[in-house]
Amino acid sequence: MTDAALSSAGDPFGLRSLDIDELRAKRGAKWQFRPAAYSAWVADMDFPVAPAITDALREVVDRNEFGYPAWGAPGDVSPAATLFAPRMAERFGWDPDPTRVHDLVDVIQGVRATVHHLSEPGDGVVLHLPSYHPFLHTIDEMDRRLVPVEWRDGAFDYDTLDAELAASGAAVWIVCHPHNPLGHVMRRPELERIAEIAERHDVVLISDEIHADLTMPGHDHVPLALLGEDVAARTVTVTSASKAFNLAGLRWAVMHAGSDRMHEAMTSLPGHYLGAPNLMAVVATVAAWTEGGAWLDAVLGVLDENRLALPGMLAEHVPGAVCKVPDATYLAWVDCRALDLGGNPAKVFRERGVELSPGSQFGPPGEGHVRINIATSPAVLAATVAAMAG
Ligand SMILES: Cc1ncc(COP(=O)(O)O)c(C=O)c1O
């Protein structure tokens, strides 16, 4: 075998052989929005998408099929939404009710629609901190009251939350599971604690499980609604293929409304109120969920290698920066407080040519931290961390 054939046999999807100049020439936000020598901020992957997806999209282009799709009749859900329930059953042992599945344009639309329908301005919304910033913006822009659950010494502080809910209540709890930016996978006892607190204080749960497919070896994703009938009846699950299959620009997501109130709200909306699913996004998701398994396994292999190598790379190049190895996702949370770089170390790393997400973006507990996106080849990750040294 030639070297090229050997290397493509070991790396059939080209995940390990990324060319940094080709990455820098990419036209998306990751490499253009804030041009840098190394870009490891927004949650897009550097990897080429699964060939099954590009083949399916190419077929739409080759056949010139850009008209209204055949599945667009009133009351229909898209083929991607139809696949959602069997896929959850196969992958996570959860049997969602297919009649409660709704197409969305994106996951945050589902979060905001649920906050809008199930709470009023001034109501409390529970959120784990640090938090994926669009959840913080949702609470702020929709005039809800943030009820934080803080990460302390390697765990979320549910005792303080319980006391706070007893005092002031909340209508909704946004659970990001697996968690962005901590990469934390909630084990069953933690999920049971969340469910028990939510039930006692009558709080509806929004479970954003968009990172579930990126759960690393040694960890299991347990859908929140799998815990039991009572939990399922107060849970609205939102997810999409966009993180695990790198399709964020295409715009499609799905909601399972276990909550009767939310299901009724979604079914009573006037037609077209939430728009209609994007044809290309649905085609790509169907390809991802039916034929993308080998690619996803290969991506998980590279991400697993990267997450385990990261602490050593940091120790070598940025001693004092401490990384929480993610249990899931391709986002790693790095504590830089010992480096004496001030409240916003991302600013210093930017001056050194490396674009990372500033920890403060994820709420006040994120000060002195950065989030690194490790969804790139091991070589590009190594060069990124080396450049952080300045
Ligand atoms: C937890 C979480 N939810 C939602 C999203 C965005 O999803 P969408 O683009 O479908 O709104 C992201 C993107 O990084 C995310 O990390």
Task: Please give the structural blueprint.
Elements: H1 3-10, H2 20-24, H3 29-32, E1 38-40, H4 51-62, H5 79-92, E2 101-104, H6 107-118, E3 124-129, H7 133-141, E4 145-152, E5 155-156, H8 158-168, E6 172-176, H9 188-200, E7 204-208, H10 229-233, E8 235-239, E9 253-257, H11 260-268, H12 279-291, H13 293-317, E10 322-324, E11 331-335, H14 345-351, E12 354-358, E13 369-373, H15 378-388
Parallel strand pairs: 1-12, 3-4, 3-6, 6-7, 7-8
Antiparallel strand pairs: 2-9, 4-5, 8-9, 10-11, 11-13, 12-13
This protein binds pyridoxal-5'-phosphate (PLP).
Pyridoxal-5'-phosphate (PLP) is lined by residues 43, 106-108, 132, 176, 180, 208, 210, 240, 242-243, 248, 253.
SS summary, helix count? 15
Largest sheet: 8 strands, mixed
Helix content: 40-55%
3D shape: globular
Percent range for β-strand residues: 15-25%
The strand count comes to 13
Distance between the termini: 41 Å
Uncertain segments of ≥5 residues (pLDDT<50)? 1-6
CATH architecture label name of the largest domain: 3-Layer(aba) Sandwich
> What is the CATH fold-level name of the largest domain?
Aspartate Aminotransferase, domain 2
Which strands sit side by side, in order, in the main sheet?
Answer: 2-9-8-7-6-3-4-5
Radius of gyration: 21 Å
